[in-house]
Design a protein that fits this description.
Length: 303
């Protein structure tokens, strides 16, 4: 696992990192000096598998990096922020049991040491679908299948081991593994299906929540009042509004450069439609459960 604290600092390394992530191995030709000081060429090969995890403060991520990854966005809601600050206060007051946290960390490390290389077969793979709204479906489809494989791999001691005709051991993916994958991946797939980046989406949802509390005849708004309500930098607020207007989520209804432009929301329920498209994961899983239950009932009736 490669952890990168700030992706901006490794910009020049993105190309080989992408190659490594895709091929799970990388080979480079380099020049070195031998004992006599002569230049000699060496072939360096690094084998995977590799997991690259990095953090950035940028709102948008280069597309070729983003579609190889699961994007996890920080919860910047007021409730979560209060929980974080409450934890910080308890930590300073000595009310947090850090020993139990360290025990949990060590348990996780020890658990991973028990994992052994074993082949994973997913008998449901041909029946799984990803939402049509997801961008870069080819890569996302493989991400989804690999996530299910990893979850099965981590549950290898809870799965019966079987052998094929060559005597090779393998374990089978269960519907429980797929259920866990769906729970973990839905938010990321939703982000990958969204035209708006994470921060702009959060702003737009907060804007809709604010405006929806107003009477129907007073739902137009100005940039100034939104900026004051959200306590935002003027340039940032105006940029967000311009982007939302460009994508067709809001529209100008009046005003001018001198007094400010008046806007109204043009797309109220598009995010709900997007979320409903992601629900194909759960509907597919439900069909598989019903099919398996029917097959099990047939087997029991035969016996």
């Amino acid at each position: 696992m490669l952890l990168i604290e700030d992706l901006d600092g490794v910009y020049n390394a993105f190309l080989p990192l992408r190659e490594f992530m895709s091929k799970q191995s990388i080979t480079k030709l380099t020049t070195d000096k031998d004992a006599k000081g002569n230049n000699v060429q060496k072939v360096l090969t690094v084998e995977g598998p590799i997991c690259v995890s990095g953090a950035t403060t940028k709102e948008g991520i280069y597309e070729d990096n983003a579609n190889r990854s699961y994007l996890l966005h920080i919860n910047e809601g007021a409730g979560h922020m209060e929980e974080v600050m409450d934890y910080q206060r308890k930590l300073q007051a000595g009310l947090v049991d850090e020993n139990s946290q360290n025990i949990a960390k060590q348990l996780l490390k020890n658990t991973q040491r028990l994992l052994k290389p074993i082949k994973v077969i997913n008998p449901y793979a041909t029946q799984l679908k990803i939402p049509d709204s997801v961008f870069k479906k080819l890569r996302t489809n493989m991400h989804y299948l690999r996530l299910i494989e990893i979850i099965t791999f981590y549950h290898q001691w809870q799965r019966p081991r079987q052998k094929n005709e060559k005597g090779e051991e393998y374990i089978l993916t269960t519907l429980e593994d797929i259920s866990w994958a769906n729970r973990l991946v839905k938010e990321s797939l939703l982000r990958k299906s969204d035209e708006l980046n994470g921060q702009l989406r959060s702003f737009f949802e907060a804007l809709k929540a604010l405006i929806s509390r107003r009477p129907k005849d007073r739902q137009a708004f100005y940039s100034r009042e939104i900026r004051e309500q959200f306590r935002m930098n003027p340039m940032k607020a105006n940029r967000y509004l311009r982007e939302l207007e460009m994508w067709g989520y809001i529209r100008q209804t009046g005003g001018n450069r001198k007094t400010g432009f008046e806007y109204e929301i043009a797309a109220w329920d598009e995010y709900q439609h997007l979320q409903s498209g992601i629900d194909i994961l759960d509907s597919t899983l439900q069909k598989l459960k019903e099919k398996e239950a029917k097959n099990n009932s047939k087997k029991s009736s035969i016996t």
